[in-house]
Design brief:
Blueprint (H helix, E strand, L loop, with lengths): L4 E3 L5 E7 L5 E5 L32 E9 L5 E10 L15 E4 L16 E9 L2 E7 L6 E4 L2 E4 L1 E2 L16 E3 L2 E10 L1
Parallel strand pairs: 1-3
Antiparallel strand pairs: 2-3, 4-5, 4-13, 5-6, 7-8, 8-9, 9-10, 11-13, 12-13
Length: 189
């Protein structure tokens, strides 16, 4: 037998003598809800409130990627500067933040082609962070820094280089056509 239920605010179960159009007894059920409960979000067709906006990220979401690009055995290399998602490589992209710089390998006897050539100097970048134009600065002895107005963002060795102090360690090199790319530094922001 199919039963129908009515809502009542009198009690949990109320028996009555009423019958539906087919002659079945009608039972009344009360769920304890008050009138205002039926007007709350999600009840009786009222829409749910909009979901709260997601919290802003608490850490870096982007990074400046500094790479060298070279043909093994050549006397020069190119410095490449690209923007990437945080902790993501740039692959063979060519959307450089500045024209690439071709420089000679540092042949000072430090095993230059094993990773001791650094992009020394100041390089203007087509990059704006917090409304400030940015430039990469490096004294040639370390990872350098990204300067955006008065904001200084420290750079570090790219994690693709498994051991920056060991010239025989995996440097994360990969091929892009005839060129070998080596991830060198990242500046997370």
């Amino acid at each position: 037998m199919k039963r129908k239920y009515l809502i009542s605010d009198e009690s949990s179960w109320v028996k009555n003598q009423n019958k539906d159009e087919l002659g079945n007894p009608i039972r009344v059920i009360w769920n304890g809800a008050k009138e205002e409960d039926h007007r709350s979000s999600g009840a009786n067709g009222y829409s749910n409130p909009a979901a709260p906006a997601p919290a802003p990220p608490t850490g870096p979401t982007k990074q400046l990627a500094v790479l060298s690009s070279f043909v093994p055995g050549a006397l020069t290399l190119d410095w490449l500067f690209l923007e990437a998602d945080y902790e993501q490589g740039v692959g063979c992209r060519e959307d450089f933040l500045r024209p690439f710089d071709t420089v000679p390998w540092d042949l000072s006897g430090n095993g230059a082609q094993d990773g001791s050539t650094f992009p020394g100097g100041t390089r203007e970048l087509d990059l704006t962070i917090d409304g400030e134009k940015c430039q990469y600065q490096n004294d040639g002895d370390d990872a350098g820094a990204l300067w955006c107005g008065k904001k200084v963002i420290g750079c570090k060795n790219d994690s693709a280089d498994k051991d920056p102090n060991d010239s025989t360690a995996d440097k994360g090199n990969y091929q892009c056509g005839d060129y070998t790319r080596q991830p060198v530094f990242v500046c997370p922001y």
